[in-house]
Amino acid sequence: xxxxxxxxxxxxxxxxxxxxxxxxxxxxxxxxxxxxxxxxxxxxxxxxxxxxxxxxxxxxxxxxxxxxxxxxxxxxxxxxxxxxxxxxxxxxxxxxxxxxxxxxxxxxxxxxxxxxxxxxxxxxxxxxxxxxxxxxxxxxxxxxxxxxxxxxxxxxxxxxxxxxxxxxxxxxxxxxxxxxxxxxxxxxxxxxxxxxxxxxxxxxxxxxxxxxxxxxxxxxxxxxxxxxxxxxxxxxxxxxxxxxxxxxxxxxxxxxxxxxxxxxxxxxxxxxxxxxxxxxxxxxxxxxxxxxxxxxxxxxxxxxxxxxxxxxxxxxxxxxxxxxxxxxxxxxxxxxxxxxxxxxxxxxxxxxxxxxxxxxxxxxxxxxxxxxxxxxxxxxxxxxxxxxxxxxxxxxxxxxxxxxxxxxxxxxxxxxxxxxxxxxxxxxxxxxxxxxxxxxxxxxxxxxxxxxxxxxxxxxxxxxxxxxxxxxxxxxxxxxxxxxxxx
Length: 487
Known about the structure:
Layout: H1 3-14, H2 17-53, H3 57-85, H4 87-106, H5 111-126, H6 129-139, H7 143-174, H8 178-182, H9 184-198, H10 212-235, H11 239-261, H12 275-305, H13 310-338, H14 341-359, H15 367-393, H16 398-430, H17 437-465, H18 468-486
């Protein structure tokens, strides 16, 4: 009975390290591809889903937000479970659940069931990103090799964002929005088979205890905040909405208090004593708020205001996604050689300029302006993406890299959730139907002002969190954490 596993390990060990590393990286990139593809493709399909199910703007928001909310809530615990019972095992379970959720979404009879199946999809997706990134960081242990690998991993985000709108537009126009979910199934199954064959099982040397109470508090925090923001335009600051906001604040306070008392917390608050790590998590939250809001805003603008077809809308967003894909690996190389500061500065400045250009009053859509603005957003997010992950795991012991990467991934998904919630609420607060063009354009300019402000914030945070003093503080924090672990 023991012979087959020994033979499989021998075959894997016989492969050249570089070749095996490339295979592992490719398999892990498949996971981020289908997760990113699902979100970006669905953005283009939102008007069709609205029409088929006669849904409101809030209903359309929930098809995106429900998925992202679950992703954000369970990423950290998924990374912890992977460290505890085996990263490959959890990775494969995530692929299986994601494939099942995708199939059920394609068969959903109404909006309520679609949202429910999106939650199942999100649960599967939460087992993919942080665990895949943990597999990568444990496969590529040399600093420069790791930076390049993470750069390619980040570039896959851009590829999925680039492919999603175009592929989604083609599928919606040729078949229906349901085909967007069906396309995930063969990709997930292929990645599942290849993972079992080529990824070596790994886990943390020391098993961390699961912090289930903190996990519940995290779900309450993210869920209450998202619900309050999405429903605020429809219900106003009613007692129920106020209760959700107060619930989010209370959950946050109790979560911090609880984690400070735990020996093995879900979120190790000592990480945040490192200015680069704190800066990276804040930038991840803000950058992906901008990205999530951008995709939602421009989906409605292109299709409902400019009357683009789904395919035309996908092609219009292509410059943003293509530059994100191109400059993520470039940023990874720059980070490996010069550190994260140049990438963070370039990224924040580009998003700021895009916001400023769009807020400047103009009487027509002016397609060159639109093209230039989309290029700036993709260029800026591409430079920022690789710098976030590298800064988050830089200086962390390998045994903590998975948890640190999980926190960074959580901030990404939480940012996308908040982006959909905030920008969607700005739109819903101004218009009842997107076809009300003058009212929508007011919301459009307000939303771009928010995106520009995010670029400014990221620029400032990037400069402060990567200063010489901040880097020295991070080194001291790492030494303290290492000493505490030895004790």
